[in-house]
């Protein structure tokens, strides 16, 4: 599924883009399902109302793109670790069209801390149900930020999951200020897949296109016990992985 070069790229940059990963038929089915969930809004105001009143927590993909059950996702995630039972969930995230809004770029850089789940997230994912072009609400990410975050938490382990004296917002601000490169927007066609290391700094953005942007964001890893640490930051960043090619 993954070549040695792809594994090396992921380890170095913390992200990996796989174009045309999902079939047109799959994406079309999921897009229609997402539109039906929102009751097929047409205008920006209708989308605003739909997003507020049709919670994503009540949406679940049919034939879910889950690493444990989707054949292609399973083969992919076996390359990251074939010694765990991959768990987690997908979330539908819609961005309404706001063609007159100000472009703010990466407006809220953050990490996805699994605060409410007994899970050690490792490899997260995002794919779009419609094509996303410049300023059309792309997810934005910082390459190599997983290494910066790991080194920061190695020095400040209580700051992971914001268990120390700083808030999540303060921690994310420190990490953002530590970046020496600009964020990269993930543009792509419906069905393109982005995998990112769970410690990769990323951000949403405003959608200035004429159509709603529909994304499926997955957070994947392994279940942990009640008192089990998610990570031992004194060890190597890849300690909980089993990276390999097939």
Automatic annotation (TrEMBL):
Matches recorded under PANTHER family: ECTOINE DIOXYGENASE, PHYTANOYL-COA DIOXYGENASE DOMAIN CONTAINING 1
InterPro entries: Phytyl_CoA_dOase-like
UniProt protein name: Phytanoyl-CoA dioxygenase
Coiled-coil ranges per UniProt: none
Reported cofactor(s): Fe(2+)
Organism per entry: Nonlabens dokdonensis
GO terms for MF: 2-oxoglutarate-dependent dioxygenase activity; iron ion binding
């Amino acid at each position: 599924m993954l070549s040695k070069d792809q594994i090396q790229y992921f380890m170095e940059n913390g992200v990996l883009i796989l174009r045309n990963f999902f079939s047109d038929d799959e994406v079309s089915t999921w897009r229609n399902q997402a539109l039906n969930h929102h009751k097929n809004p047409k205008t920006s105001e209708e989308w605003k109302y739909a997003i507020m009143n049709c919670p994503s927590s009540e949406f679940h993909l049919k034939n879910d793109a889950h690493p444990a059950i989707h054949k292609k996702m399973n083969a992919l995630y076996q390359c990251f670790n074939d010694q765990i039972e991959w768990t987690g969930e997908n979330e539908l995230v819609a961005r309404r069209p706001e063609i007159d809004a100000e472009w703010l770029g990466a407006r809220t850089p953050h990490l996805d801390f699994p605060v409410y789940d007994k899970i050690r997230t490792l490899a997260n994912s995002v794919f779009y149900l419609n094509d996303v072009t410049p300023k059309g609400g792309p997810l934005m990410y910082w390459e190599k930020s997983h290494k910066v975050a790991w080194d920061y938490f190695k020095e400040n382990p209580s700051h992971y999951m914001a268990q120390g004296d700083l808030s999540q917002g303060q921690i994310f601000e420190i990490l953002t200020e530590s970046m020496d490169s600009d964020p990269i927007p993930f543009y792509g066609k419906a069905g393109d897949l982005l995998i990112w290391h769970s410690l990769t700094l990323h951000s949403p953005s405003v959608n200035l296109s004429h159509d709603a942007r529909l994304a499926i964001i997955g957070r994947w890893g392994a279940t942990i016990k009640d008192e089990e640490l998610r990570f031992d930051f004194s060890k190597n960043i890849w300690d909980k992985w089993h990276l390999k090619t097939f």
